[in-house]
Amino acid sequence: MRTRITAGVAALTIVGLVLVSLALYVVESRRIDRTVERSLLQELEEFGGFAQRAPAASITGPDAVVLAFLERNAPDARESLWAFPGAGTPQFTGDADLELQGSDTFEDAVEDLRGTGGARTIDVAGTEYRLVVQPVTDGTVTAAFVVVQDVSAARAELRSLLTTYAIVALVVLVAVTAVAASLAGRLLRPLTDLRETAQSITGSSVAAQDLRTRLEVVGHDDVAELQRTFNAMLDRVEEAFAAQRRLLDDAAHELRTPLTVIRGHLDVLDPDDLDDVAATRALVTDEVDRMSRLVGDLLMLARSVRPDFVRRSPIDVAALTAGVLDRARGLGNRDWRLDGTADVTVELDAQRLTQALLQLADNAVRHTGVDDVVAIGSAVTGDRLELWVRDTGTGIDPAVADTLFERFARAEDDDAGFGLGLSIVHAIAVAHGGTVRVDRVDVGARLTLVLPLTVQSRPLGVLAE
C-alpha cells in the first residue's frame, strides 16, 4: 500500500509537471512568434516613414534610400537589416552571420519577394529565420529593404528555460516522492501494527498473552477509529475465548463425575448377579440421562448467540403470563398465585420466554416448601416489560447474587442440576435485548426478566436491586 500510494503521488506529480512544461512551451512559443512579428512590422513602419521623408533630405533613388536607412538605424538583438540595391552587392547592418551571408536560400527568397514584398520563413543550415521584404522602386530601379529575425536564437532561450525547468522538476519530483513515501509510511503504520497484531493471534496456538495485545490508538481519524474497533473486537474475542475455556473446563469437570461413577460401577459389576446388573444398569442409565441433559443445556447456551435463537411474533403478555402459571402448577404442590398481568402486546418469542419463566419457577419450587407461595406476574414499567417469579422460600444469598447467572454456578445448598438453568434464562433475556434482575425482597426471592418494549441492538446487562 505504501508503494502504491508513493507511486500514485509520483505519477500525479509527473503528469502535473509535464502539463506545466507543455503549457509553458506553448505559451512561450506563441509569445516569441508574436515578438518576432512585432519587431519585423516595427522596422517596416520605421522604414516607410523614412522613405517618405527621404526626398526632403535630398535622398533620392531606391538604392540611396535603402542604404541611407541602414546607416541611420541599429537593429535589435537577433536581428539584421539588409539592403538589396537594384544593382550591386547586398549590404547589412547587425551581427555578422556567415551562414546567412553566403546562403543561396536567403538570396532566392529575397529575389522572389523583391517585386511584391512579403514575409517568409526559411531554414539555413538548421537555423530558422523569419524575414520580411519591402520593395522600393522608382519605375526603373527596384531595391529591396529586408529585415531578418533569427527565430532559432530566440527559441534557444526557451530551450534553456525548459532545461532549467526540467532540472528543477526532477528535484521536485524526488523531493515529493520522498515526502510521500515518508508520510505514507507514517499514515499506514497503524495498519501495519493492526496486521502484525492480527497475525500474532491467528497462529496455530493462541496464548492468553496474545489476546491481551492491544493497539495504541493515536489521533481521531478513520484509521484511529479502525484501531479502536479492532481493540473492541479483541476485547470480545478475549472474553469469548476465556468463556470458552471456562465452559470446557467446567463441562469436563461436570462430565468427569458421572463417567467416573459409571466406570467404577462397571469395574465392580458381577455379571452373574442379576440384581447387581439391574442396579448398575439403572445407575448407568440415570448418569447417562444427566450427561444428556448437560449436553442439551450446553447446546442451548451455544445456540443462544445465533440470530435465529429468538423468533419474534406479536404476543399477548397477559395470556402468556397466565399460561406459564398453568404450566408451572405441575412442577410441585405449592401455593401458586398470579401477581398481575400486563395488558400489552409485544413482539417476543413466546416459547423462549415460557422456557425461561418455567426455569425460574422450577428453581423456586426447589427452594420452597409445600406451604410456601410461588407467584408469577408481569407489568409494564416505563419503556420496559417486566416478567417475574417470586417465592417465600429460603431466598438468595447476596454473596452469590452477582454470579448467579454464570455457567455452572450453584448455591451451596443446591445439589440438583448443573447450574446451567439460570444461565439459559439469562441467555434468553439477552437474546431479547434485556436482562435478568435479582430483586431485593424481605422474604424469599424474586427474579425478574426485564425486556424492552421495542427491539434494542444491545443488551442491558445484569441488574441487581
From TrEMBL:
Residues 250-455 form the Histidine kinase domain. Keywords: Kinase, Membrane, Phosphoprotein, Transferase, Transmembrane, Transmembrane helix, Two-component regulatory system. Its EC number is 2.7.13.3. It is an enzyme of class 2 (transferase). Gene3D superfamilies: 1.10.287.130, 6.10.340.10, Histidine kinase-like ATPase, C-terminal domain. The chain crosses the membrane at residues 6-27, 162-185. One of its GO terms (molecular function) is kinase activity. SMART domains: HAMP, HATPase_c, HisKA. It catalyses: ATP + protein L-histidine = ADP + protein N-phospho-L-histidine. This is histidine kinase. It comes from Aeromicrobium alkaliterrae.
